[in-house]
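Open question from group meeting: does this chain pack into something compact, or does most of it stay loose? Before anyone orders reagents, we agreed to write out a predicted structure and look at it together. Recording both the input and the output here so the notebook holds the full record.
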Amino acid sequence: MNRAAQEKPKAVYTFYAGAAAVAFVKQYAQSDLKDVPLYAAGFLTEGSVLTAQGPAATGIRNVLNYSPTLPNPANQQFVAAWSAAGHTGQPTTFAMASYDAAAVLDRALAAVDGDVTGEELNKAIGEVGRIVSPRGDWQFEPTEHRPVQRWYLREVKADGPVLSNVLVQDLTTLPAS
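C-alpha cells returned:
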C-alpha cells in the first residue's frame, strides 16, 4: 500500500474475499491511503467479512447484484422473513441467490410433465420467464441461461445498528439482452 500511496491515486479498486478481504480493509483503514476512496467488487464487504471488518469498512463503495436495502416489495418481505427466522445481521447475496435458486427450481419442477430428467429440467429452467426476486425482477438469457439482472452501487454505512452495503444507485442490467 505504501507504493500505491506514493502514486497519489484519486481512487483505488480492489478485489478480495474472505479472510484476505478482512485483512486488506483493516490495513487500508490504517494506511496512508485511508482518505482515498476505495471501490471494490461486492465480495470485499459481503456477509461475515463485513462484520469482521467493522468500522474500518465504512465508506467503501462496491458493486454487486443485491443489497438488503433495495426498496422493492419482494426484498422487504425477504429481509423481514430473514430477521423473523432469527438470523443475525442482514441477508447477503448468497442468501438471496439460494432463495432465488429454490424459486426457480420449484417453478421448473412444476413445469416438467412426466419424468424429471436433466434435459427436461434444464429445458424447463430456460422457460421460467421473469422471476420476482429480492434482487429485483430478473430472467434467464434465452440461449445461454445466464441471469439478466440489475447491478447496484453500494456503500458500507450504518443501517440502524449494523453496518450494511446500502444501495447508492442502480448501475445497469447485465448481460445486455
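Observations to bring back to the group:
The helical segments are 2-6, 18-30, 48-53, 73-84, 93-111, 118-125.
The chain has a mean pLDDT of 95.
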